[in-house]
Amino acid sequence: MDGGGVPLIESGVIMLPAGKPMTAMRFDAWAAQGLPIMDYAVSYEARRIAGSDFFGTITFPVGALDRCVSFVLGGWGGAVVGISSIDDADAGGNETRSEQRFDPGVWYKVRIEVRADDLRAWIDDRIVVNVSIKGRRLGMRAGEIRKCMPFGFASYATDGEVRSVRIESLKP
């Protein structure tokens, strides 16, 4: 799936070349592999190679395969981090928004924990998202990113790479 760029996997690295505007890769076998939809963590490393928008953005399920959100890494011109979408507000406009500089060519470690009452995310062992989701509306931002459901990675007009993807169950 792509919007101009063609995702590739080489030597264990998912390469997401700049699309027009987005390039994405989706893993369709989440349910068939018996992967959890709640009380789990996903970790990976991502880096921006070139460009100035999001790279290594991940879409993942929260309680159901059709209830997904995305953790945006370097969006809105290159620095915005957060969850899209909570209560119909994307990462650029909800309380999970923060900003971070992402240097080209540097691998950033990402960890996300999905629990019944909250979502947490870390970049390089620094917590950047810690939000209660109890009673909240979770969903995908409109547009091409929806094609990443239930689990996938995307970059927007930016060359990005992802590696070392790991999913683990957590105790509730």
What does the model show?
The chain is globular, with a radius of gyration of 14 Å. The strands form two sheets. A seven-stranded antiparallel β-sheet has the order 1-2-13-4-9-10-11, with no helix packed on it. Strands 3-12-5-6-7-8 form a six-stranded antiparallel β-sheet, with no helix packed on it. It is mainly beta and 172 residues long. It is built from no helices and 13 strands. It has one domain (20-169): Jelly Rolls, CATH 2.60.120.
Please, what is the average pLDDT? Answer: 94
Strand order of the largest sheet: 1-2-13-4-9-10-11
CATH class: Mainly Beta
Judging from the principal axes of the Cα atoms, what is the shape?
globular
The level of helicity is under 10%
Measured distance between first and last alpha carbons: 34 Å
CATH architecture: Sandwich
**Content of β-strand:** over 45%
Order of helices and strands: EEEEEEEEEEEEE
Largest sheet, if any?
Answer: 7 strands, antiparallel
Unreliable stretches (pLDDT < 50, length at least 5) are: none
Protein structure class: mainly beta
Radius of gyration over alpha carbons?
Answer: 14 Å
What is CATH's topology name?
Answer: Jelly Rolls
User: What is the total domain count?
Assistant: 1
How many helices? The count is 0
Number of strands: 13
